[in-house]
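hey so u asked for the seq, here:
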Amino acid sequence: MKFSVLVERDEDGYYIASVPELPGCHTQARTLDELTDRVQEAIGLYLESEGTKTEGKVELVGVQFVEVNPRVWLSAERSSVCSSPVRSHRLELSSIFERLVC
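ran it, structure tokens below
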């Protein structure tokens, strides 16, 4: 079985993996190699405990970073959201997600 895995890094430098198709299936590790092993173990334990029924397939297509000027949103004089300075940067998913698939 293949699963989408979301990977984040917290403020202490730990990598955190979440599996959207398996609610509550999360793990963490200091390194990406260790995270790969742990997320595979977490998925296996989840399936052993909860069965193979999942929440539906999630297709990860990329990561979107959006920068918003908070002064515009906090201002009572907002005339148009469309005129606010919002910049967006698209980042394609890296091979890290491919490494974390069972």
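The mean pLDDT is 78. The first strand starts at residue 6 and ends at 9.
lmk if thats what u needed
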